[in-house]
Each structure stands twice: as structure tokens, then as C-alpha cells.
Amino acid sequence: MAQIVCVLGNKGGTGKTTLSHMIAHGMGLLGKRVVCVLTDIERERLAKEGRRYLPFDARSHDNLSRVVTTLNEVDDWFGVIDGGGNRSDMDSQLANLADMVLLPFRDSHEDIRTVLRDLEWLPAAWAVPSQWPTNAWARKAADASVQSLMDRYRHRILDPVPVMASSKLLLQDRIPARLPPQLNSMCRALAMQVFESLGVEFESVPDDSALPDEAGGSPARKAPPMRRIG
Ligand SMILES: Nc1ncnc2c1ncn2[C@@H]1O[C@H](COP(=O)(O)OP(=O)(O)O)[C@@H](O)[C@H]1O
Ligand SMILES: [Mg+2]
Q1: Maximal C-alpha separation, the chain
Q2: Are 63 and 89 in contact (CB under 8 A)?
Q3: Which domains can be identified in the chain, with CATH numbers?
Q4: Average pLDDT over the chain, rounded to whole?
């Protein structure tokens, strides 16, 4: 049976689609077979050419059932399901299928209020600080908001995903032949964090900066560690 990660949450714009693709890409870079499942009817399907994972269009109920059935029948695959936002019924159903649920939220009180409700509602889910500021002062302020408003849930907060302009390259219909090493490192670090939570073994692969291009190479360094809040 494949392992399924669902990226959910009752709010648009938190980074669900971006995070789904980053995790799928990172898992692909770590040599895993991954399908990234689109359920959001507001989004277009993306071409699979050049990707390390398979994007699958499950905007119709039939296609979603098909991909879930297939994932239940195959071993050694991972499914990353991008929820649409604002659909509690759908999110409940997806959360029931999931081995891991991620709830991205941005640095705003409104996002934090929503993610607190979602954490309450989905007791096994993890919150993921998304589009997190990289500027030292802003980062400190954002971390302080999380500490003061989310302290009760501090054991269920993963490492922040920083603002990274190049993340939108993964949401292009066709991705560039070469992606920035910094993006690849971040995606690998995210995938490793997910694998660690799921108890999945993975081979440590070299950081891109140690490679002539993004394919292959001998084991060297791991992706840079991300700093936890708190
Ligand atoms: N880590 C990130 N760094 C920079 N921009 C981001 C990041 N994550 C998301 N974004 C941007 O934020 C916007 C909303 O992201 P998206 O993934 O579409 O959210 P959702 O699927 O929750 O609606 C998009 O413009 C996307 O490019
Ligand atoms: Mg989306």
C-alpha cells in the first residue's frame, strides 16, 4: 500500500499547492516514486515532462477514486494530495485516507486562527509554517506569534518553509530543465522531514551544490537543516 500525505486546510493561499509539489519533487529527488494529486477544481493540470514525480489530475470524483484505489494497491509509491481549501467535507475524507496530514499556514493572525481550528479538528495533523519570512527581524516576529498563539500545539509544528520565489517554478505547466539548487535542497529537506515522521527509510543524496547537475552523483551532504521554531 502506498503512503499518502494530504496537504489540507480551510483557507486559500496558505501554500498547499506549492507545498504539495515541493514535497513530491523532494521525494522524487530522494529516489522515490511519487504521484502529486490535484483535487482543486480552481487549478489547471500540469505537464509531467521533466518532473521527478507524476502530476495526476483528480479534479473529478471518478479520477480521485481511481488514484486512491491504485495507491492502495501499489507498494513503494507515495501519494501527495493537494486539497482545494474551503471544503471541510472533502478535507475530512482526504484526512481519513492519509498517513500524514499537513496544514500549511502563513505568518498572520488570521492564518493562525484557522490552523488552530484545523489542528483541533484533525488531531493527527501537523501544522507547517509556510512562506516564512527570511529576514531576521521578520522571522523573529513570526516565530514569536507562533510561540504565543500556538504554544499548546508546539509538538505538532514542523520546520518552517521559507519564502522562496523559485518555488513557483514547480507550479508552471512545464518546469525548466534545471531547477535552482536552493529549491532542490529545500524540497529534499521537506521530503526528509515527512519521511522521518512516516518512518520511511531513504538514501541520503548529495546536495546540488556538490554536483555538476541535478541528476545522480555519489552520497555526500544532506540538505541544510531547517531551524525549528522555539
Ligand atoms: N514557500 C513559498 N515561497 C514563496 N511563495 C510561495 C511559497 N509558497 C507559496 N507561495 C505563493 O503563495 C501563493 C499561494 O500559494 P498556493 O500554493 O497556490 O496556495 P494554496 O494552494 O493554499 O491556495 C502563490 O502565489 C505561491 O506562488
Ligand atoms: Mg491550491
Answers
A1: 48
A2: no
A3: 3-210 (3.40.50.300)
A4: 90
